[in-house]
Amino acid sequence: MRIIAVDVAKVVAGASVQVRVGSGKYYGLSLQPDGTNAVDAIVYDNATTESGDIDAARALAVVSENYQFAHPIPFTNGLRVNVTGTGGVAYVYWTRTGKVE
């Protein structure tokens, strides 16, 4: 079994955050709503603007959801995450290119 050490970024609902500038691999995300309000997330291959999406909107009602890929999705320009909703968070799993796995 191969174990991969990934970086984790926490993005609160209502924020659009630049997680990484430059290339890397996107492994997935975990959506954690507050128990009342829904949380949506879109992940972009872009460091500064919300364009070039690599993961479509993930929506849920009031339960936690995890989205992880068997094969990570590469990104080249950067990693930006937009989380909409109220009171929840998204945890984004990624590595930078060249990181030893």
UniProtKB/TrEMBL annotation:
Protein name per Swiss-Prot or TrEMBL: Uncharacterized protein
